[in-house]
Amino acid sequence: MKSVKANEILPEELLIELQKYVQGEMLYIPKSKNNYQKWGTLSGGRKAIDERNATLKHEFKKGRSISQLADEYFLSTETIKKIVYSKN
Questions:
Q1: What is the mean pLDDT of residues 58-85?
Q2: Cβ–Cβ contacts within 10 Å for residue 80, how many?
Q3: Model-level pTM greater than 0.70?
Q4: Alpha helices in 1-88 (DSSP H)
């Protein structure tokens, strides 16, 4: 996360208003909802996990056991259960 100085980027009136609430502290300002992207969207990590989960569900439906899948994918049996029994 990049740090910027408020007095360098904000209008003076806004800075004065913010100082009523916080002074000399770090303040996190989240992205607006329309600029927010889920984890892994840009890197492709989310897509890779979604594809892996689809493969796990398919293999489980074909008869592979939860413990076999856990060993092959290096995941806990509880994680495999959450994936294969999820509705989405």
A1: 97
A2: 25
A3: no
A4: 6-9, 12-19, 45-61, 66-73, 77-84
